[in-house]
Please model this.
Amino acid sequence: MPDLSRRARSLGTENAFVVLAEVNALARQGKDIISFCIGQPDFPAPDNVQEAAIRAIKGGKHGYTPSAGIDELRTAAAKYMAGLRGGLPIRPEDVVVGAGAKPFIAYAVLSTTDYGAGDEVIYPNPGFPIYESQIVANGARPVPIHLHEARDFAFDPAELERLITPKTRLLILNYPHNPTGGLLARRDLEAIAAILRKHPQVWIYADEIYSRLCYTGEFFSIAQVPGMYERTIISDGASKTWAMTGWRIGFTSNPVLAPVFTRWITNTESCASQISQWAALEAITGPQDAAAMMRASFLERRDLIVGLLNKVPGVACRNPGGAFYVWPNVTEACRMIGVADSEEFRQRLLHEAGVALLADIHFGTRVPGEGQHVRFSYAASRQAIEQGVARMAEFIRKNIQKAA
Model:
């Protein structure tokens, strides 16, 4: 057999989908599983969005669009992103529409680093696993910056200053954050910007897909800090705000790189689905009642799950500032029941209690000295949250007795 390329061999995956396959296999065997694995809203897309898609289908909007997206959506997305970010001067020509926000991670790495040149990309750890996967596959050097529980899962700007070298080409920021739900506060972003002013060769990829799911004050982007707009790739999309994960619509803005991203799309997917683009236009410009309802529901669920988890033996859970994830510390629970780490805890919880989570190692190497963590996605019903956490508590109590 011919060999695979080094790039193909190095390509990582998103373990949420790997664990989901395991969950589905158990469910097919008749096992009762409560799953908190996948990070997607458990709501349908708003009715007006669905109706816009039907109109697009019936109106014959079935063909290719320009690679950067239809003009109407680029205009609406520019206005939307600018309005959410303090009136930034985002023009329609600065916006590129893609088949979800995820492809722009690869396009950003490809556009700012050269394969095998030793160029470095700094990214959050723990973090969305596709960051590291795309950095490695595209021949750059991954440089993790650790997030710390004591800082509510932000990183120390002084650590960033130590990590930047003349080879650093891109800094990936994600806020609100997957997997921890943590935020970078305005003061953090201003401190980061002060450091980056000393290093003009560094681009910023601001993954702001959860920008409308921020629960502590108004959302603030690093692109709003003076001097940062032109060098920041702002990434947002329809998936999380309007429950449109499977519609695959993301939009990214940068005044310099927009034409480059457009060429990448021409070379890859040609364009995003035209039907989905018209639906996303309605999502942005139509009534926002459904988006507001979903946000309010996620906030209620956050408060519920944090309160319940903090009553579970050996578990400590901080209150996340956004998204729909919690990142409880299970170090003491692991010790109490005699498991080696969070991954063994996750596996046993799944097979013995029917509760599906992700472990910290699914989001990068463990941060030294930070202990063991698991991720819950609380994009689940109130009943599922209550039953799932109760099962987890009972699992720990049973195994404390066995270990004693």
About this structure: Residues 169 and 202 are 5 Å apart (CA to CA). The first strand starts at residue 34 and ends at 35.
